[in-house]
Amino acid sequence: MKDLLYRASKPFTELDSEKLSKFEEFTRIMTDVNKSMNITAITDSMGIALKHHADSLSIISTGLFSSDKKVCDIGCGGGFPGIPLKIAFPQMYINMIDSTEKKINYLKNTACLLGLENIDFTSARAEELTRPEAKVSHREKYDIATARAVARLNVLCELCLPFVKPGGYFLSMKGQKAPEEAAEAQNAVLQLGGKIKEVRKINFTLPEEYLSLPDAAEFCNSERYIVIIEKIKKTPMNYPRQYSAIKKKPL
Ligand code: SAM
I want to staple 60 with a disulfide (CB 3.0 to 4.6 A). Which of 12, 50, 135, 231 is the partner? Predict the structure, then answer.
């Protein structure tokens, strides 16, 4: 699994042996816990290496991450893309946010076993953390917010953009519908103080010897995108709305 992950993630970041061992341990913990708790539908180590770890690491190709950045991963679920990012940048601060307490508890335990530091875990609905009545406000406190597979982009922008400082970025990891979702979310992005900079297609590659493996071929052919949204001004205080309103009438 280590060699496959090394090669699949090499276009984005070069993992040393210590980081590769952490990924191996992370996979072992996830596979083990997944027997009694629903963390992922992908259960084989090759699938996890490609579709979770390497896919998460592809976000590094934006060139926006470095050790001094303050990042939040919204709707992190079983830890993607936040935990792979944290392994790749051990000094970088990251707050893992999810509304499901069970998943956050699993991640706390996993991070402890992996020896990850400078990482926080927040079990709450994202939109409640940036509203004026929030006890501890996370509003415009982060350089980068990430989200993978959480909601349609026009809804997701209202959950995520309020976390980002002006000058920072919201990075949304999406499948083949990214261009369509980005077009649909133009108004939401504008209202929330953002600007879509790019809908970037990710190119996954693997050496020839791996391509006969079904998961590897599927991975290299998968259509994956990162929607790069820059925060160009503060989000008006009337956003985010309550989730029911966001969902009922996306901006
Ligand atoms: N990002 C992970 C991944 O790519 O594997 C998990 C994706 S999972 C399909 C979506 C996650 O978003 C769930 O764990 C869910 O609890 C979380 N979620 C959905 N809406 C949320 C919200 N408003 N605030 C915080 N978490 C939310």
Answer: 12
**Nearest protein CA to atom 14 of ligand 1, as residue:** 77
How far apart CA 134 and CA 201 sit, in angstroms, is: 36
pLDDT tens for each residue of the chain, 251 residues long: 899 999 999 999 999 999 999 999 999 999 999 999 999 998 898 999 999 999 999 999 999 999 999 999 999 999 999 999 999 999 999 999 999 999 999 999 999 999 999 999 999 999 999 998 999 999 999 999 999 999 999 999 999 999 999 999 999 999 999 999 999 999 999 999 999 999 999 999 999 989 888 889 889 999 999 999 999 999 999 999 999 999 999 99
Ligand 1: centre distance to CA 207 (Å): 33
* The residue to which tokens 């069970």 are assigned: 102
Contacts of 145 by beta carbon, 8 Å cutoff, 6+ apart: 71, 72, 73, 74, 160, 161, 163, 164, 168, 169, 170, 171
Report residue 158: phi and psi, to 5°.
-70, -30
Asked whether 230 lines ligand 1 (CB < 6 A), one says: no
Give me the domains of the chain, ranges plus CATH numbers.
2-248 (3.40.50.150)
C-alpha of residue 98 to centroid of ligand 1, in Å: 6
